[in-house]
Amino acid sequence: AITANGMVMPCDAVLFQGNCVVNESMLTGESIPVTKTSLPSSGEEAARLYNMEEHKRHTLFCGTHVIQTRYYAGELVKAVVVRTGFSTEKGQLVRSILYPKPTDFKLYRDAYLFLLCLVGVAGVGFIYTIVLSIMSKVPAKTIIIESLDIITITVPPALPAAMTAGIVYAQRRLKRAGIFCISPQRINMCGQLNLVCFDKTGTLTEDGLDLWGIQRTKDGSFSPPESDVAAERLVNTTFVACMATCHSLTKIDGELSGDPLDLKMFIATGWILEEPTEEETALHNLLMPTVVRPPKHSMAEANQNQQLDIQSCEIGIVRQFPFSSALQRMSVVVRRLGEKHMEAILKGAPEVVAGICKPDTVPQSFSETLESYTRQGFRVIALAHRQLESKLSWHKVQNLSRDLMETNMDFLGLIIMQNKIKPETAGVLCELQQANIRTLMVTGDNMLTAISVARDCGMVRPHEKVIIADAAPPKDSHPASITWRYTDIPQTVCTPSQLDTFSCFVLTVSLLQSAEVTVEEGAHHFAVSGKAFAVITEHFPQLLQKLTLRATVFARMAPDQKTQLVEILQGIDYIVGMCGDGANDCGALKRAHSGISLSELEASVASPFTSSTSNISCVPNLIREGRAALITSFCVFKFMALYSIIQYISVILLYWVKTVLIFILPYLFFLCC
């Protein structure tokens, strides 16, 4: 059982009763608390076997801090232990620190080969010394000492320690700069980085999003945009009610806490969130819902104009389906006070939400409107809603599957959020480009928003064109196809037969477009969506490496796809760095040669490097220190190798002229120095 006043989890466990608010910063570096819900007890999801990745939102991980619990009267929040010790998520991270994956680094490979050659040379000197000493009738004890001395002279035992000197000092300087390292050997690898992948939100752009406005729908078409969400005339609208309820916010020590996007949306509505006390939960013998309502002065003003029933504005959040990166959406089931039926509310990526809604409720200008906002760099979220059957009881809703609930929705409109670029971003990217270090954006956000941000921060220059690569999987008798189009030119569909070579592809793009465009080397960039990446990986593997060589923007990428992209880039001989906020980038951060997590928490062990500063200015600093450490290691290696060879030749010549080496201690002194 999980204690009511919180605890640090000693194992991995899956919730099967009650809800928890958990701080997972120790694992992910993400300081925002997340809500964990219990496993569904019925429906299609309940029939599937438990899987750690699929059911992550129901799993409490070892080392994470349970801040708050929501439970039934007379019953504790219960969880089943699934993993302990080194098998847990924390245990695997600790193991990766204790036994890091061997770094395949050219300097180290060459150093081992050179040492192997020195061993061969030492073997020759060893035999030579023995033969020469026997011929000179030297005592056996002296022969053994002098022969072994040749080996220690030729293969310097102090070489590994000497090569780590540069790393040690670089690590100290990095710590003073606010960059913490758990894998010192990777510092040298930072000196050879020639490609850096960046997450967008929280890395290139600010964490916080400002609400720019909303655009509701009416009778299947968009209404004009509105900026004041808290206006009196909007108090009792379904749209604002959905904004105030579709979130995973909770109160911790009297303060609202949760996802920054959810927090901004809720604050913009001006509504109030109230959570039930332990006494209320015990009195009703149920898990009491969180209640949201408008402020009293807004309801009073609205009453004067609309005869609004104050009670009807109070809405209880009966059940939450947390945000899923794979599904790109979240949803809640709510009930208005005094109403018999419940309602389902959905929030997520506009393309995903529109696909779930009834076609007649989605405006015909949906694509054009969405594109107009995303081109300007806005982050757009869609809302949908539907009324559930009145026969659904509270208990039935708790067992309702997500797939059954998130279907046949009514499209409500768009929420437009403004995400500003961090002041340091453009300067750092320009500095990296001047150093001939390639930069990529790998994000889960909308494609056109990502392209707009890439242009604004200088990753794509104003005169350079962007070609969007989209792909469709095989359907019925139609084979898989790829759609290539410029961001401002109609699309062109290419079949597999047209894509035998990359040069053919470039020719296809330039000739088949409606406008006369020439595609020049270095004057264009590719942008790939997560869906297209999956299709190309499976059906067009011959294009994958060539495309990643020229692509700059990867949008709508799932966490596992980010990791896969890093592996592909490493496969084509890139030394890859990954910079992210540590939330959805953990796999890629750990897989890259140099993973840099931007987090306020030094304790994050999700990546080899963790920066206490929340911007990408740490990347050039890390590369500089890496290059300094690499040069130091290389120079020390050359000095030690040359010193050993010179000393080896000197000793062999002395043995040849039969000079007796009386004092061996000076050799040991030289080696220690």
Automatic annotation (TrEMBL):
Lineage top rank: taxon: Eukaryota
Transmembrane region(s): 111-130, 150-170, 652-672
PROSITE patterns linked to this entry: ATPASE_E1_E2
Limits of the P-type ATPase A domain: 5-97
InterPro entries reported in the protein's UniProt record: ATPase_P-typ_cyto_dom_N, ATPase_P-typ_P_site, ATPase_P-typ_TM_dom_sf, ATPase_P-typ_transduc_dom_A_sf, ATPase_P-type_domA, HAD-like_sf, HAD_sf, P-type_TPase_V
Gene Ontology MF: a single term: P-type transmembrane transporter activity
Localization in the cell: Late endosome membrane
GO cellular component: late endosome membrane
Primary localisation category: membrane
GO biological processes: intracellular calcium ion homeostasis
Keyword Metal-binding: yes
Matches recorded under SUPFAM superfamilies: Calcium ATPase, transduction domain A, Calcium ATPase, transmembrane domain M, HAD-like, Metal cation-transporting ATPase, ATP-binding domain N
Membrane topology: Multi-pass membrane protein
Keywords: ATP-binding, Endosome, Magnesium, Membrane, Metal-binding, Nucleotide-binding, Phosphoprotein, Translocase, Transmembrane, Transmembrane helix
PANTHER family assigned: CATION-TRANSPORTING ATPASE-RELATED, POLYAMINE-TRANSPORTING ATPASE 13A3
Family: Belongs to the cation transport ATPase (P-type) (TC 3.A.3) family. Type V subfamily.
Protein name (Swiss-Prot/TrEMBL): ATPase 13A3
Protein's organism: Kryptolebias marmoratus (Mangrove killifish)
